């Protein structure tokens, strides 16, 4: 299962390199046309896409660390041995690397958002005095909208095919960028057609706040992930699935956590005190397969205690 997860992440890595190439192309085109087209909104959209390039680069670094083929080292340090074997807990923790680097990315996105808002507010006072958006700005926004739509479809298709949370999240982010680029196109056309350049600066500030919101959402999600937070409703559904097994009398303890996108469950169940070892083993195997099939849980650790009411005397 670990090998399958690593292969999925390696495929996601290839897709992310395509993302970077297109994002970088969009950023260069937009920034160039914003300079000759005198559009602050288009420049803000270029900065927004630049944040996409930076965040994807950090994510690639994190995924590369997570998929490192050397099972004996983690971030340059040797993984300690447990009973002569590599500690499985430490090996699984490699999947947190993508989350850690994504958290770093959120700070960069928030910083870029601050720059966009500051620049937009400053240009608000000089909008239209010397320059105002022209048809080159509209061309840049139109090209960005089309290319972002291609990126969004590419990420959505591969995320669904691989059942990969990284690409699914990238698809949602790309959809936001499509909307932003299209909004920039409409703004530039309005500023150019109606000769109201202040709209351009206003929308650039709005884009800045949109980027800020995206950075804060990423920060929240990564922080909760690293703090071992799991949706209580999901945990309740997992418990309900476990208690459906007739042999499980009660769930005594339950804990779930994420290692990156990998969900791990540890639990203590109460079973018949007279259950033999092979029957108990079969039960835990059936529980594990059910949780993997129903909730895509990567690893399940099950311990059992006897039901005191059924102890044979």
From TrEMBL:
It comes from the Bacteria. Residues 231-304 form the Cation efflux protein cytoplasmic domain. It is a multi-pass membrane protein. Residues 95-226 form the Cation efflux protein transmembrane domain. Its main location: membrane. The chain crosses the membrane at residues 16-34, 46-67, 95-118, 138-156, 177-196, 202-219. Belongs to the cation diffusion facilitator (CDF) transporter (TC 2.A.4) family. This is Cation diffusion facilitator family transporter. It comes from Secundilactobacillus angelensis.
């Amino acid at each position: 299962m670990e090998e399958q997860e690593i292969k999925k992440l390696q495929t996601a890595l290839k897709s992310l390199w395509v993302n970077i190439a297109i994002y970088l192309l969009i950023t260069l085109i937009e920034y160039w046309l914003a300079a000759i087209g005198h559009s602050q909104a288009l420049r803000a959209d270029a900065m927004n896409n630049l944040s996409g390039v930076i965040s994807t680069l950090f994510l690639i670094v994190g995924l590369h660390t997570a998929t490192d083929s050397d099972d004996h080292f983690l971030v340059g340090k040797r993984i300690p041995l447990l009973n002569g074997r590599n500690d499985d807990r430490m090996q699984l923790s490699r999947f947190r690397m993508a989350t850690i680097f994504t958290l770093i990315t959120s700070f960069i996105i928030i910083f870029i958002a601050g720059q966009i808002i500051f620049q937009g507010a400053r240009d608000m006072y000089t909008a239209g005095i010397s320059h105002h958006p022209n048809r080159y700005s509209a061309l840049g926004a139109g090209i960005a909208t089309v290319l972002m739509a291609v990126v969004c479809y590419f990420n959505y298709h591969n995320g669904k095919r691989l059942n990969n949370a990284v690409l699914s999240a990238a698809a949602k982010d790309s959809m936001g960028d499509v909307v932003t680029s299209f909004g920039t196109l409409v703004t530039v056309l309005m500023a150019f057609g109606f000769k109201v350049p202040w709209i351009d600066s206003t929308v650039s500030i709005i884009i800045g706040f949109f980027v800020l919101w995206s950075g804060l959402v990423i920060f929240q999600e990564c922080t909760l992930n690293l703090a071992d937070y799991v949706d209580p409703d999901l945990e309740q559904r997992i418990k309900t699935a476990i208690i459906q097994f007739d042999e499980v009398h009660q769930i005594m303890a339950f804990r779930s956590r994420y290692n990156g996108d990998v969900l791990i469950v540890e639990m203590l169940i109460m079973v018949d005190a007279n259950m033999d070892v092979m029957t108990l083993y079969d039960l835990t195997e059936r529980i594990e397969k059910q949780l993997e099939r129903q909730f895509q849980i990567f690893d399940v650790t099950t311990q059992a205690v006897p039901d005191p009411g059924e102890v044979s005397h």
